[in-house]
Amino acid sequence: MKHVSILVPKSNTILSSVVGPYKIFKSVNDFIIQTGKSQQPFFDINLVGIDKDTVLYDGAFSIHCDATIHDISKTDLIIISAVKPEWITDDIKTNYEFIPWIKKQRTQHNAEVASLCLGAFLLAETGLLDNKQCTTHWAGIDLFRQMYPKIDVLPEKIVTDQNGIYSSGGAYSFLNLIIHLVYKYCGQEVAVYVSKLFEIDINRDNQNQFAIFKGQKEHSDTLIEKAQLFIENNVTEKVSVGQLSNMLAVSQRNFIRRFKKATANTPLEYIQRVKVEAAKNALESTQITINEVMFSVGYTDTKAFRILFKRYTGLTPMAYKNKYNRELVNY
């Protein structure tokens, strides 16, 4: 039997990221017993908090934990539930008692640890992700990179798995991570059954198609902000790094360094992301052709545009239009 601790952070836990893993692990236990694979459940599941009771969503819901971290001396798998993005830094402070407990379980008992969505911030605080790969919700990627520069962030990934340290992408991507864990512990038959029971796409592996690029302007470098605004206001034009540095009267080397420091993107990456975001908006809301969209964001090479678009979204322009165009899709 594998002991699972589903952590319930104080204040701003995302309820579904507690209930979802709990229901899936329970369903695995039911399936194993009902099919005669075992007379005992595979997972021993505890909801674990700093306190026994947590109130969520302004009192609309509450969770009663089976145990606190002080009651659990040893566990095999820790699930760090997601927290709301609005108060992420405050939530880290509020839930900091989890950090030494997680580190102890990992270092002394070799517990495996999985973060769901923005729960990656709590996992990162332990240092267990340093020099490892990780993913999280696309909306938190820039802040995550700023706070934890030692971690290799993979924004497109739905699931990462590195020697017993796991992370999931945004929102309900955590379901794919839980299925991944079921597959690892219980095998393909059980994982496929549970994925069908909960109607989870077991092969989904990329979250880029859901990302919305808003531009990283939470910095104090006014020169770089001018460059950002110029890029965004001239999306139909070809803009080069040399053109931007000359316009702002700084050396190209210094401009690239400052731009990367302020935005976590190189100028070229920023130009590409702005253009791809504009292309996505056109594909979602208009009936113009792929070539017309390409020309409207300053590209003339069909193959190069297709490769670039797929790099940032995980889909070709045509596949993206077929999936998200408001007139083509019958919601």
Automatic annotation (TrEMBL):
Signal peptide: none annotated. Residues 225-323 form the HTH araC/xylS-type domain. It holds the Pfam family DJ-1_PfpI. Keywords: Transcription, Transcription regulation. InterPro entries: Class_I_gatase-like, DJ-1/PfpI, Homeodomain-like_sf, HTH_AraC, INH-QAR. This is Helix-turn-helix domain-containing protein. It comes from Flavivirga jejuensis.
